[in-house]
Amino acid sequence: xxxxxxxxxxxxxxxxxxxxxxxxxxxxxxxxxxxxASAKKAAAPAQRPDNNTxxxxxxxxxxxxxxxxxxxxxxxxxxxxxxKSVHGKRxxxxxxxxxxEIPHKAGVDHKVSCVQxxxxxxxxxxxxxxxxxxxxxxxxxxxxxxxxxxxxxRPSMADQSRTNATCYSCHDAHYVYPKGSDxxxxxxxxxxxxxxxxxxxxxxxxxxxxxxxxxLNDGNAYAAICSDCHTTHDVADPAIASTRLVITHNCGNCxxxxxxxxxxxxxxxxxxxxxAHTAKCFDCHGSHGIQRTADPASSVHPDNRLKTCxxxxxxxxxxxxxxEPHGTTDDFNRYPQIWLASKLMLQLLAGTFAFxxxxxxxxxxxxxxxxxxxxxxxHVQTVDMALGEEKHFQRFPIIWRVAxxxxxxxxxxxxxxxxxxxxxxxxxxxxVMKLLGGPQLAGLIHRTCAVVFAxxxxxxxxxxxxxxxxxxxTFQIFGPNSMVPSWQDLKDVIAMFKWFFGLGPRPVLDRxxxxxxxxxxxxxxxxxxxxxxxxxxWFPNITAAVLPGWVFNVATIFHGExxxxxxxxxFTVHFFNNHFRPDKFPLxxxxxxxxxxxxxxxxxxxxxxxRLVETGQLxxxxxxxxxxxxxxxxxxxxxxxxxxxxxxxxxxxxxxxGSLTAxx
Length: 664
Fold this sequence. Notes:
Layout: H1 2-43, H2 51-58, E1 64-66, E2 72-74, H3 79-84, H4 92-95, H5 114-127, H6 135-148, H7 167-170, H8 182-196, H9 200-207, H10 210-217, H11 226-230, H12 241-254, H13 256-262, H14 266-272, H15 281-285, H16 305-309, H17 336-372, E3 391-394, H18 398-422, H19 429-436, H20 439-470, H21 487-500, H22 514-538, H23 540-546, H24 550-580, H25 590-593, E4 595-597, H26 598-604, H27 606-615, E5 622-624, H28 628-663
Antiparallel strand pairs: 1-2, 3-4, 3-5
Helix pairs in contact: 5-6, 8-9, 12-13, 17-24, 18-19, 18-20, 18-24, 18-28, 22-24, 24-28, 26-27
């Protein structure tokens, strides 16, 4: 038996030795054939799988595979829904570029970069000159650029290896639909839930709001969702100023009228200038938990309003509650005080300029015509032949000239700082405000100049009271030296209009003309209106302690409109009367030097001149002409103030035209 086993092992060994050469030769040939086939296969281009092939697996409901964390990850794609999406006409492998064969190779990177894909397609479109045919792709690339600068594209604080939110955190790449489609509307309604995955607290609060209930409960696609306020792709930190401004603007996309009325308040004007420190919509109404005003839970409900105001105005008093942040001048039934204040100021503006601009135009025409005909006296300094030398008439003492200069300077700065806020919607206002150092510094400058202006005004009242008091026995209220209007002024106005139309001679006038008296008394009205309203706005806590909040609305109208009237009057009518009419163009320096040529005085104030000659008092008012340096300095100062005034006039007029255009 053992010998038989030995014989079999020997036999097997002999057969192996004999067959070995043939085996290894066959194996070599087979290996060669296999290598050749592989080479041919590699040389042939790989066939990219089409969408039907992909959906053969991914289209099956419940199709899933283990993810990196070991949990099952759904890979199911609904064919019909995908086909309706903006990506439905593209191959799956256009995005999943690492997938080259089915079944997939092990170790393939299944991640897709939305950014790289769209940017690559856009670069191809640009190279092929097909950007116009791919406008929507261009829009997507712009959105990507915004996204890359957003807070979502930044690394998270907890994990610096990933972004805060990717494209597909908000969008499902397989189900992105064009605007206007039913599927897009359905996706829009799901946005708060998508945001709530990360912003759980905000999502919960939003669900209780008037917006959230409309979206999540009622399916109202027109109600505000997260992206309507925070924007879509360029979402930024809501704590920074630029974001606060953007969100406020976005509120106006739905609440158009409310935004308009808000921008007419100081809060909104500062907002339009690009500064975020004043109250915004969400500071009053809340952000995620907004309720209707009538809801007792609303932060702007009458019972809660004072507490809301006190978040910024810590010492706010009861009057703040009735302030109308959205009060409009067009609704008498809701806001009668605001309506009346607005109409009163508009009538005052219209009446004032209808008269004085007509007066100036007629005066210019008549005076220019007479100068051309050489009927008027020359507009040059002349030598008084009786005295044998050039003499001037002393018209204004030094104290009056200093007061006038302070008045002029402070008023111009007040106009600049005030009109920049008043016409915050104009293109120039943000530029000027930036040069002024921002609203807070501009406000300080404004109030400082207001104090200077008021001080000069009060000083003048005291000065006049003392002057009249010292001469009360001889002072005549309606006399030639008084600024109080008299019947003679009315006669002069009538005579002036007769001259304008060639129906009579040019009237001879006394020490103070009717237009000078108007220039004098107008500030009494203006300073009272502007000053009182300004003080009320300057100290709101005191004002609201004794007056209702709608007073702030009225005060704002009076303050702004009266300031506009003053600026337009001074830089048009006053400048014309004293500098731009033909007999005085381009500049009258009497308010800077204090004196005027005697011949000029005789022409402008004939009645006073004649009276001084008859009483023998003329001599005591005669002075030498200003020295050359003083005359030169007066001209420089005068032209500087006029130039500044005209610049302000241009700014105010462009702001006014822009405001009227926007309103229409």
